[in-house]
Amino acid sequence: GVPDCVIERALNGISDFFDLTEEEKKDYEKKNSTDRIRWGLGFSPGDHEAVKREYLKVLPHPKFEGPAKPAGFREALEDYYQRNREVIINLAKAVSKTLGFEENYLEKKFELETGADVSAMNVYPPGCKPNTQIGLPAHYDPGYFGSLIQNVNGGLQLNYKQKWINLDMPSSAFFIKIGDHAEVLTNGKYKSPMHRVILNNEVRRISVATVHGPSLDTFVKPAPEFVGESHPPAYRGMIYKDSLEANGYHEIDGKSCMAQLRL
Ligand SMILES: O=C(O)CCC(=O)C(=O)O
Ligand SMILES: [Fe+2]
Asked: ipTM score here?
């Protein structure tokens, strides 16, 4: 139900943002992992040499704030995040029902009215040697769902049964995956996939990867519905904000907050 033009306008705005001069983008340079708007290079500090990604991160929910430049960009993003969230909330209802609960189950468990979303807009330059260069090292994402759009198909890989599988999706589609905190809540019934980005395009790839999270104060633990004699709790509970902090706000290469949560 999201019009193609909403996605196109957001992707075009992102492309224009990355085309600003280094000087203009420096206004948004990352100083802190909790800055509301942060621009940077590489995955974690100091990786720019090996990792060619450039990113702009914003917090779309509970309160969106976007960059003032270039003209119209903030509005295009706000529109995109609003429609994106509608899809996510509807999906949370559908998944709740699929699990056999009432439709507000996940919204209540994760206190989604004040759910903390973090979005990374990424740009990857064309790869030099096809299929060999890493654009973003293997990692897991926090939150309950992750959503993604991209301007060209190819690049994202998911790990399944120790093999890397290429994501192949039509344009104007959303890719949705399970996040670490849905794995914790369902006591491992749903798994958060490890993923990475390979530079395998002739053209510059732009993606918008949004981590949809519980409210920062939510204590996330395996729900009693998923725990039983044959299913002892496999994860410890933690306040969402603390699990983000424990993992350096999702910016540590290859790590996941699961290392601290797994029992
Ligand atoms: O660019 C992509 O396809 C994925 C980005 C990603 O995984 C992230 O930002 O966490
Ligand atoms: Fe990710």
From this structure: 0.98
